Amino acid sequence: AASASSSSSSLQVSSSIIISSAQLDSLTASKSVSFSSQLSSLCLNRCVTAKHGKVLRVNAVIETEANSNKVMEVDITLSPRVNSMKPSKTVAITDQATALAQAGVPVIRLAAGEPDFDTPPQIAQAGVNAIQEGYTRYTPNSGTLELRTAISHKLKEENGLSYTPDEILVSNGAKQSIVQAVLAVCSSGDEACLFFSFFLLDPLCFFSVLIPGPFWVSYPEIVRLADASPVILPTKISDDFLLDPKVLESRISEKSRLLILCSPSNPTGSVYPRGLLEQIAEIVGKHPKLLVLSDEIYEHIIYSPATHTSFASLPGMWDRTLTVNGFSKAFAMTGWRLGYLAGPKHFVSACGKIQSQLTSGASSISQKAGVAALGLGRAGGETVAAMVEAFRERRDYLVKSFGEIEGVKISVPRGSFYMFLDFSSFYNRRAHGFGEISGSESLCRYFLDKAQVALVPGDAFGDDTCIRISYAASLPTLQEAVKRIKESLASLKTA
């Protein structure tokens, strides 16, 4: 029950940076600082701190009026680490589309990154059994020996990778595995430096993390969370968004600590062929400091003749690769929150140390379900194969349909359940009652407004020319979405 005691609408900080806004949640200075929506009506009255002319921290103090009518000061400052991060656009768009659907708007939601299938009944029943049998207590921090042994067997049989259970860490989803891996091996180096948002210092004081773009939205933000610097390696749609080894070699420096690879890819659906991975491995091998995080969460959602190669299986790469995988995508278990990391014990133990102070072990119920999932057979057996075949049919339909739209450029997905389409030829056009289409974000807002189809703008993935479409939806739903998109594109006029 706090109320603002001042109507001031501007806030000054050193180095001649001025933040002025009527709404705190849209404050910007170089990048953005955001405050919770509950504070959006409160006014800041003090911002301090600078050192050697460089802004290090913004202190925000509000005055509130307690029940006793006594004015009190409350410091609502957020940490530089939080201020340097952006919220996930995919989550934001998914939430917006869900809210519209709940309000009765017939929105077609093609933004979420999760299968539209139910968890296979054998897996679900294993979870039910765990509850009914009272298997509901804490598990070891690293995961149950039963599950880690099953993962070890899976990695050996399917990926050609030899890991003992002690070299595997089970976490609450693959995202947690990635965060912990980056935190474990990256730092800001010897200098206490901050970057992005208000933190305008030299990024070379960081360890850097090499990320091929387009990238999963969370990679750069996870890197910033670790006080490291993301270095984006551009790819081309004409190359199916695959990393050119020459580009990689040209961007490696003495600060390069980690290369993140995702194959099959989110958001592009690209799959790295073994020959290209071998070229990348040869380059990585020249740099003792450089490690590789291989995100293989979509490994089973792949379309023949494409095949999956685990990076750690390449000659000389086991010792420097952290392999991340999980159960969410292939087994339609997104809500079960179960992932894992495999790698040299030295690194895995470090990640386990972080996890022990964050969440401790993953859900006991989910881990029993994970054991059942790995018991379905190689690559998930017939259950997963049927799901992948449905994804293939949908992909083929979308490739054909968007290929018929003049001006849309396509890279045919070889895996995952996403298409990353170049719509840039429709930019700088206008729509009646909407305004100008200036980029991927405004085009996605237009599709949501005009066609009532929720998609994700490519700028969230580092490529503003494109838009990501998730085909984790039924074929009739996709057919209706394509119809609406075509009609809305036809309504655009040259600006």
TrEMBL record:
Position of the signal peptide: none
Pathway noted in the entry: Amino-acid biosynthesis; L-phenylalanine biosynthesis; L-arogenate from prephenate (L-Asp route): step 1/1; Amino-acid biosynthesis; L-phenylalanine biosynthesis; L-arogenate from prephenate (L-Glu route): step 1/1
GO biological process, one term: aromatic amino acid family biosynthetic process, prephenate pathway
SUPFAM superfamilies: PLP-dependent transferases (SSF53383)
Keywords: Aminotransferase, Pyridoxal phosphate, Transferase
Gene Ontology molecular-function annotations: aspartate-prephenate aminotransferase activity; glutamate-prephenate aminotransferase activity; L-aspartate:2-oxoglutarate aminotransferase activity; pyridoxal phosphate binding
Domain Aminotransferase class I/classII large: start-end pairs: 106-485
Highest rank taxon of the organism: Eukaryota
Cofactor(s) listed: pyridoxal 5'-phosphate
The family this protein is said to belong to: Belongs to the class-I pyridoxal-phosphate-dependent aminotransferase family.
Annotated protein name in UniProt: Bifunctional aspartate aminotransferase and glutamate/aspartate-prephenate aminotransferase
Source organism: Genlisea aurea
